[in-house]
Sequence to fold (427 residues):
Amino acid sequence: MSSIKDTENAPDGHASNPAGGANRGAVLLIAQTFPPSNMPGAWRPYRFFKYLTRSGFDVHVVTASAQHEENPRIHHVPDQAGPSKDTLGGWGQIFLRKFFLHGYDALGWWSKAVREGERIFERAPRAILSTSPPEAAHFAGRALQGRLRVPWIADFRDPIAGNDRTSPTPLSRWSNRFVERRIFREADLLIANTDAAAEQWRRRYPDWAPKIRHLWNGFDPDEALAAEPIPTRSGRTLTHVGSIYLGRSPRALVASLLRLQTDGRMEPGGLSLVLHGATQEELATPKDLDRLKGLGGFEQVGDPTRLGSREDTGRAMATSDYLLVLDFHASKQAIQVPSKLYAYLRIGRPIAALTQRGSPTERILERAGVPYVCMYPDDPPETFDANLLALRELSTEPVRASEWFWAEFDGKRQAERLADWIGELGD
Fold:
């Protein structure tokens, strides 16, 4: 049995308590997605694990992500692909997901995560930290809070109430508000991943405002990422790395590229949209997309149903002329930030952002110091065209982001703030 007495090294090769030998206690981290998974949601909990460990905490992870190598502090609890139709419990999950908890994954996993959390420790940890989505991680966190009688921290990479992914019907919207309220009432600390989300919560739940904080998504300072030489090519590239989710669409940008390259204001292929990753949105009519491809203005790289390796996508970003952020959202809530923005800003080449006015994405770009253009949902076609022409004229020489960016989004510094909050809960 693994226990908090284990002394083996963390996966990055650093000792479990490097902070002068100090042992600040154990933390149980519940993260359904975790490396080696390359899903974007895996890396925030990984940074917590890595840098809380370096800060002197003995962190144990319960995750559904299979591990390539055994680590005594990472506990794999497999999750089945979907609810079983062979059991009453499976049909119960199907009913809940259809009518109440639409889009909620891992409903059959969280109870197994609870059992594993109880198994790990010979004595109670100092705190439990659960991170969502999926929201089931918080169900496990709440259950373990009651059973182990320790503080529980709920971290949110996406909101629950008002989230298009889980709120397509009036009944599911009611369910989400109910789930959110229960979590907010019971958790000892609530962490949003943007300042806008945290402020929205404080307005919604004034009684619980004192326990609401925010930690942006960020980057791992140990991870090497910088601009690389741009290969010789006939035109310039505007690259988007990652999935294009429903509600975030580059259709207006595709239409603008097609206009510019067919009416002579931009040479054919002078600016090409290059996509790496899965695409859930319709980019344009098939006819228009074929026309743009024929002009050299569009390319889909790799398998359009999934994201490539971290190495391949990192190289694609580092060698692109310009980088694209899609922050249009069907809900029109300007409270989230695509995580790829932090990688783009480290590279330092110009960024095109399709976003809402006054969004966190726009505010970060304003302070980060890297050249950018913003385009908004209500921009007329001529404004889109003018912005793309302006982008095309920006120098591709990398620009170092501002000191504010490096201080605010450094994953090590963020984990140090989280470590202080954990310490406050135990005082």
